[in-house]
Specification:
- This protein has 541 residues and is of the alpha+beta class.
- It has one domain: Porin (Beta Barrel).
- It is 20% helix and 45% strand.
- The protein is built from nine helices and 18 strands.
- Strands 1-2-3-4-5-7-8-11-12-13-14-15-16-18 form a 14-stranded antiparallel barrel.
- Helix 7 packs across helix 9.
- The radius of gyration is 33 Å and the shape is elongated.
């Protein structure tokens, strides 16, 4: 029997919450939400997207405060044949009511100093109230496994729950320099602090075996699987001891020439009816049919019991192992660590109405240390163990173009170098780097009111082996829209809405048990975002 539960610290928890690569968030301002493309930004959110472009703000102090409220629904469907009610749908809800982005800028002369704070990875918690197929399938396998061993069993049940949260907080600082009216450059670094938390349980695993040999209680009603397996271990241990006892007890009869006598006629050579009944019961435990038991001789019975004793002992050990696997399991663990991301950036303005930006973020090396509060029955997390939490390098390109004064056209491209990162063994399941690109438009209806809409597309680089109910990545299309309103000369308001649509992923699985069927899983997500931001201009723009 397979281990009954594996809580996995996987990328569906530690990955990006929306825009970005496998583990990187790129939706870092309300302006992004409503335009979807900010790589060539020269507004205050450029403190994250394009620090070199901040020199175009002019001298003074500038600030931006943003928040996004994010809701995501993850759905996994499985047609695994032994799941109750197959095909089954498992729904996970991810919630991030607070997803902040705070940026500060101070420009003086040709120099620009900026800082930012945002969730650069993760940012939410996923909750699966009924677990996932990979959690339930080992429980479901108990039924056919027992049935195949001659223990009639038709039902199972369990209480399954899993919740995980991940937060990669980024604290970024940049220094920009205006070389001339056309070219600005910037250098910066981001300090990343990571905390992942995992809570879950698999309790009350129950089955309905009909096998009174292990006890009168096991007669078709629902019982705890651990109790049944413990009773089985006890019964098999006793049977092994009984077999060993009668191997020695029958030896005098065999040595005295009574070995050829039928066991059922043993009362004629010194056995009593109780002894014969016990031996016959042990022969049944060894796997003999009633007809075989009726035809066996005393010598044959001794030989059968001698061979059966070690097998019964081994089976008792297996039952003990099953009992431990079926016991209640609880996980309460966390992982934490830090890393630093060096950042290089340049902004080129060939004319007053065009900005072209390029930014490179280096790979962030992060080692996460595990802390276990409760790992009862699981053994999945090891206290003090170090695991990899690296973030990949990223190349971003962007262009902002104003064909007329009131119209802004923005285009962006990002490449996340996932192939160069060891995601704790997932590197061999990534064929190419993750790509993101899009286009956005903003139009000024008046001096104060601007409306915008945008589209972005992601193309994942993972192969089929990567996909599972715990970690899946598919291509997406996102649309966003909203408006900006100049409240005063010093304050801008940005409101946006975004919805991300994920292509459906799928995977075929080989049979888990002999004689089983191939199974099929599908994966999908849907994400909604509402964002608001205030930009403050305490200088000349």
């Amino acid at each position: 029997m397979r281990k009954l539960l594996t809580f996995v610290a996987s990328l569906f928890i530690t990955g990006s919450l929306l825009a970005g690569g496998l583990v990187t968030n790129n939706n870092q301002s309300a302006m992004f939400t409503r335009l979807q493309n900010r790589n060539a930004s020269t507004d205050i959110d450029a403190a994250y997207f394009n620090p070199a472009g901040l020199t175009k703000l002019g001298n003074g102090f500038f600030a931006s405060i943003n928040n996004q409220t994010i809701t995501q629904t993850q759905k996994v469907n499985s047609n695994y044949q032994y799941l109750t009610g197959t095909p089954r749908e498992y729904v996970g809800n991810v919630s991030a009511p607070v997803f902040p982005g705070v940026y500060l800028v101070y420009n003086t002369g040709k120099l620009s100093f900026s800082a930012g704070f945002n969730p650069i990875g993760g940012g939410g918690g996923a909750k699966y109230k009924t677990g996932l197929p990979s959690f339930e399938m080992p429980v479901a396998d108990i039924v056919p496994s027992l049935a195949s061993q001659g223990i009639p069993t038709t039902q199972y049940s369990a209480d399954i729950y899993f919740k995980g949260s991940s937060m990669y907080l980024g604290y970024q600082a940049n220094v920009g320099y205006k070389i001339n009216d056309k070219i600005s450059v910037a250098v910066g670094a981001r300090f990343v602090s990571v905390t992942n938390k995992y809570n879950g349980y698999l309790n009350n695993i129950s089955i309905n075996p009909t096998y009174p040999a292990f006890g009168a209680a096991y007669n078709g009603g629902m019982v705890l699987a651990s109790d049944f397996f413990t009773a089985g271990a006890t019964a098999l241990t006793a049977a092994s001891a009984g077999a060993t006892k009668y191997v020695a007890g029958l030896q005098p009869l065999v040595s005295g020439g009574a070995g050829s006598v039928l066991l059922s006629n043993g009362t004629g050579v010194g056995l009593n009816a109780t002894q014969i009944g016990q031996i016959q019961q042990l022969l049944g435990a060894a796997g003999l049919t009633p007809a075989q038991i009726g035809a066996i001789t005393i010598a044959g019975a001794q030989g059968t019991l001698a061979a059966a004793a070690p097998v019964l002992t081994a089976n008792a050990a297996v039952m003990t192992s099953h009992a431990a696997s079926a016991a209640d399991m609880t996980v309460d663990a966390s992982e934490s660590g830090t890393g630093v991301t060096p950042i290089l950036n340049a902004n080129f303005s060939p004319s007053e109405n065009v900005d072209i930006a390029i930014k490179y973020e280096f790979k962030t090396k992060i080692n996460l240390k595990t802390k276990v509060v409760n790992n009862e029955g699981g053994g999945i997390f090891v206290d003090g163990q170090t695991v990899i939490g690296d973030m990949p390098a990223m190349l971003s390109l962007g262009i902002d173009f104003k064909p007329i004064k009131r119209l802004l056209i923005s285009a962006s491209f990002n490449e996340y170098f996932d192939k160069n990162v060891d995601y704790n063994g997932y590197d061999n399941e990534i064929d190419r780097n993750f790509l993101e690109f899009g286009l956005g438009l903003e139009y000024s209806l008046s001096e104060k009111l601007r409306v915008s809409a945008g589209w972005s597309r992601t193309v994942t680089g993972v192969n089929t082996n990567y996909q599972s109910d715990q970690t899946f990545s598919t291509n997406t299309n996102s649309i966003g829209f909203g408006f900006g309103y100049r409240i005063t000369q010093m304050i801008d308001l940005n409101l946006g809405y975004q919805r991300a649509f994920y292509d459906e992923g799928s995977k075929n699985f080989d049979p888990l048990l002999p004689g089983g069927l191939y199974s099929f899983e599908t994966y999908n997500k849907l994400t909604w975002i509402v964002a608001a931001g205030l930009d403050f201009y305490f200088g000349k723009k």
